[in-house]
Amino acid sequence: xxxFNKEKNTFRLDTPSSTYCISICNGGYIGHAYYGSxxxxxxxxxxxxxxxxxxxxxxxxxxxxxxxxxxPQELPTDGMGDYRESALAVTDADGHNGIxxxxxxxxxxxxxxxxxxxxSVFADGSDASRLELTATxxxxxxxxxxxxxxxxxxxxxxxxxxxxxxxTKTVFVRKALSASFDMDDxxxxxxxxxxxxxxxxxxxxxxxxxxKQGVVSMRxxxxxxxxxFIALLDHNADYNSGRVYGVNFIYSGxxxxxxxxxxxxxxxxxxxxxxxxxxxxxxxGSTFDTPQAVLxxxxxxxxxxxRAFHDLYREHLIRSPYKKSPRPILINNWEATxxxxxxxxxxxxxxxxxxxxxxxxxxxxxxxxxxxxxxSSLGDWVVNEEKIKGGLKHLVDEVNKIGMxxxxxxxxxxxxxxxxxxxxxxDWAIQIPGREPGMSRQQYVLDITRKxxxxxxxxxxxxxxxxxxxxYVKWDMNRQxxxxxxxxxxxxxxxxxxxxxxxxxxxxxxxxxxxxxxxxLENCSGGGARFDPGMFYYSPxxxxxxxxxxxxxxxxxxxxxxxxxxxxxxxxxSVCPNHACGRVTPFxxxxxxxxxxxxxxxxxxxxxxxxxxxxxxxxxxxxxKYSALVRDGDYQRIASWSDGKDVDCWASIAKDKSxxxxxxVQVMNHPxxxxxxxxxxxxxxxxMYRVSFPDEDQNNWPALELTGRTLAAAGFPVRRDWGDFxxxxxxxxxx
Length: 735
Ligand code: GLA
Description:
Blueprint: E1 2-5, E2 10-14, E3 18-24, E4 30-37, H1 49-52, H2 57-62, H3 64-68, E5 88-91, E6 102-110, E7 128-137, E8 142-151, E9 156-165, E10 171-184, E11 188-194, E12 202-207, E13 211-217, E14 229-234, E15 244-250, E16 255-262, E17 266-273, E18 280-282, E19 287-289, E20 292-298, H4 301-316, E21 330-332, H5 334-337, H6 343-355, E22 360-363, H7 391-402, E23 405-410, E24 414-415, H8 420-424, E25 444-445, H9 451-466, E26 472-475, H10 497-515, E27 520-523, H11 533-536, E28 541-543, H12 550-561, E29 569-570, H13 587-595, E30 600-601, H14 610-632, E31 634-639, E32 647-653, E33 659-666, E34 676-678, E35 688-692, E36 704-707, H15 708-713, E37 716-718, E38 726-734
Parallel strand pairs: 21-22, 21-30, 22-23, 23-26, 26-27, 27-28, 28-29
Antiparallel strand pairs: 1-2, 2-3, 3-4, 5-10, 6-7, 7-8, 8-9, 9-19, 9-20, 10-17, 10-18, 11-12, 11-14, 13-16, 14-15, 15-20, 16-17, 24-25, 31-32, 32-33, 33-38, 34-37, 35-36, 35-38
Helix pairs in contact: 6-7, 9-10, 12-13, 13-14
The site of alpha-D-galactopyranose (GLA) has 11 residues, from loops.
């Protein structure tokens, strides 16, 4: 709910458990007054800092420097005296840097805002409302609208900024962040997510220190290395208690997320498009929308924060027809064959997979051009009939006859130097004229900021999809961007490149899901380098990591699930020793870990040992039984191996709290260690639940009957197993 106190010029944005207050202060400055636990029905104007320090119009004028440098602002601007991190920086036509915003008007409107060409949250009827707060810089003629979308049932506020050049001269926007708010430092910690290829989104937590700390990407995508998420939380906050402020960015390109602690022990948190290498030419009359940033406040620890993000994304961002239905259990041939496959091999895999209940075959990289390793053919999206004998339609028809769906891999944004496309259009690769562009995985990136290039790339994909009954696409992006130069841009617009690249990806994927509305699209980028909420708008699932090792996945999936629903995490069972790290884990454990994602297989089923193979039909049954719970339920983190525990444990709890699935992985065994009790929160306190170990010998692991209250306070026992990497599934059902 959004309310405006006209006399006091104060806005109050309320979600079920949080309040966000904005004040228009003396001089028209837009001040940030409060964000945190829900306030009582008090007049919140006393929270406005300009009054507290007795600043009047005349004092601001006299002491503007000291005023702006401590005043908590909603959208701090550059060049006027606030020396902390700014959210907005503009250069005028004569090269002067500076912009100052003063309140002009506002609107409170039902529903969500639509951002042209960008992913954006949506809502039905009264589920969301928004405040559009417009401020202007009359000298520049620039109008800036801060858009706050407030959700009625979720503790989330979505922020974006629309800039309009309402003047007569071009200006250059050098920085346009989406979110910024100031608060006192309260002994907070900061959490960010970091990694590398095959090690994405590991959780990093440390106390806030003076100066700046945060994460950035300049790689042209959200990246393996750092992630567009940052959280501030009480120093002693844990999974279930303490205050947490989480901020996430609905964007798939270069970003910055920073916390800055400055001289008066105040904190500023900002998030938006990375200003480095960014400069947007805003001609008179034109507008620019920033992507949306999502703010979540939880006073029930990290699990409360995760729940809010998961609910928001599942209900208000993912659009796919698959979002609330079971995803087909797939088998992907990448780790099974790499580039070495043909029609016969794929059909062998499909036939065997079908026997065990697997539902879809996905043909990965290597089916086009003359690609038999990663050194050629990207851009030549023509079926290689030496491998795919009889053609693609024949293969797909045969797979369908076996009773399976068919899916295919593309990397539409790329071009190999050894390709007909590059020989015909060398200028289609991103490059700086006169400079040899750098290769990565022996490939260049296509300049899809040019319309003719992205139309060509899109049409290659669409043509293949029209040629056969293809029901799934894995859209990959296997290198990061360097050597930025585009023939479509000029000296004064080259700074738009990175953002235009992301807009081009969005445009292509929008076309794809519009032209093929039943398609199941899975995004991917060398594993999980483009696992971000921007992509959820187009695909309900994203390949989480090229590391399919069950133990490595514990940390990767934990960091991912901190922000994103389990239903979005591409997770497959593969063979051991694992291809990314060489570890050997039980097939059962690999199955349980993948069951907490989209679930599938990535192995040569025709070569699997009889013992492992025998488990597949059972895992398929587990998926059928529990996938709705995992997909639609509330995620709860219980113990974390990555945080120094020797076990990892999490749960999915049905929204009506009638049932829950707990996954427990004993990562390390120790001699002479005994029972461990697992506590699960948020069940119905007085209800009686049956706690069972469905996959274990019932004589050794008898079911227990316990109330929700006891399960939260004392928990249920799990005995130690012999050996490392052992796992248990625990099913809890209301009696
Ligand atoms: C990336 C993906 C893999 C696979 C290969 C194919 O690394 O993450 O799953 O598709 O590309 O080249």
